[in-house]
Design brief:
Order of helices and strands: EHEHHEEHEHEHEHHEHEEHEHHH
CATH topology of one domain: Indigoidine synthase fold
Helix content: 40-55%
Oligomer: single chain
CATH architecture of one domain: 3-Layer(aba) Sandwich
Number of strands: 11
Distance between the termini: 31 Å
CATH class of one domain: Alpha Beta
Number of helices: 13
Structural class: alpha/beta
Bound molecules: pseudouridine-5'-monophosphate, manganese (II) ion
Strand content: 5-15%
Largest sheet: 11 strands, mixed
CATH superfamily of one domain: Indigoidine synthase domain
Length: about 300
């Protein structure tokens, strides 16, 4: 038996050799509340289509890995209870035991690569958490970027993370971190940060060409494309700093650890901003879906 099921739409795109963009599902189940999660998931898929590519939202439904979900499957996932947050370590366990699972950036990259999909759009990646020198909390997303040849479009990293340490780990592992159209590394809710991005490219065409160059050279690992949030959707960093500090302190006080840390922080920031963080999050995910679709169409156009 094959390892996964393609949605009819994704199967058609694969036979035609047209562009496909992978989308993750942890953002749906653990990153946003219902019903905004399902609305955003549908809008992101629509944005990919508008820009000439086919969306492939990835999740595990009753133990089956799905590459592309029908609307009914998307709804099942968004409303299911007890959905596992599935990273590299969890994916085979979730599949072998028939559970529902939402894939993180790491697991979505693995699934996309299995299905021959080169480009993936998300909001923010996991990274090195604040206090990592004591708690050792480093997301498996960073090691996946080093291992699996998928180009990931994100809006940089959230300030819940230690962004300088996140960039250092990516550098150590040889992951190209490429800011789109600017010199600084974007900081999720803010387009600019005071950190220089290691690399910069100004067109989807060049990003596609460097993806293809890595394949031709046989280099393992992907590219991280850091796409700044649209300026009209930004939230000033000084407005979020005290909220992030509070959420981080609460996580420590309540002994939250392991894979629960990121969902806990995202949920508290949503509550403490009265939903404002979610509006920005939606805008940047749509913006990333647009760029990812353009990169994917450029890759698909290569001979
Ligand atoms: N950061 C965000 N939004 C998210 C996540 C991270 O701004 O939804 C999710 C992604 O699925 C990411 C995962 O892959 O959290 C990382 O979790 P961890 O830090 O436990 O590796
Ligand atoms: Mn972690």
């Amino acid at each position: 038996m094959t390892l996964y099921t393609l949605s009819p739409e994704v199967a058609a795109a694969k036979s035609a050799g047209t562009a496909i963009v992978a989308l993750e599902s942890t953002i749906i189940t653990h990153g946003m509340p219902y019903p905004q999660n399902i609305e955003v998931a549908r809008e992101v898929e629509a944005k990919v289509r508008e820009n000439g590519a086919t969306p492939a939202t990835i999740a595990v439904l009753n133990g089956r890995l799905h590459i592309g979900l029908t609307d009914a499957q998307l709804e099942d996932l968004a409303t299911a209870k007890d959905v596992m947050k599935v990273s590299r370590a969890d994916l085979p366990v979730c599949m072998a035991t028939g559970r529902m699972g939402a894939t993180t950036v790491a697991a979505t990259m693995i699934a996309a690569h299995l299905a021959g999909i080169s480009v993936f759009a998300t909001g923010g990646i996991g990274g090195v958490h604040k206090g990592a020198e004591l708690n050792f909390d480093v997301s498996a997303d960073l090691l996946e970027l080093a291992a699996t040849p998928v180009t990931v479009v994100a809006a940089g990293a959230k300030a819940i993370l230690d962004i300088p340490k996140t960039l250092e780990v990516l550098e150590t592992h040889g992951v190209p971190v490429i800011a789109f159209g600017q010199d600084s590394f974007p900081a999720f809710w803010s387009a600019q940060s005071d950190l220089a991005a290691p690399l910069r490219l100004d067109s989807a065409k060049h990003i596609a060409a460097s993806h293809v160059m890595r394949q031709d050279m046989g280099l393992p690992g992907g590219q991280l494309i850091a796409n700044p949030i649209p300026e009209n959707a930004e939230i000033p960093a000084q407005e979020l700093a005290p909220i992030i500090a509070q959420a981080t302190a609460e996580a420590a006080a309540q002994g939250i650890s392991g894979k629960a840390v990121t969902p806990f922080l995202l949920g508290r920031i949503f509550e403490l901003t009265g939903g404002k963080s979610l509006q920005a999050n939606i805008a940047l995910v749509l913006n990333n879906a647009t760029l990812a679709a353009k990169i994917a169409t450029n890759i698909a156009a290569q001979p």
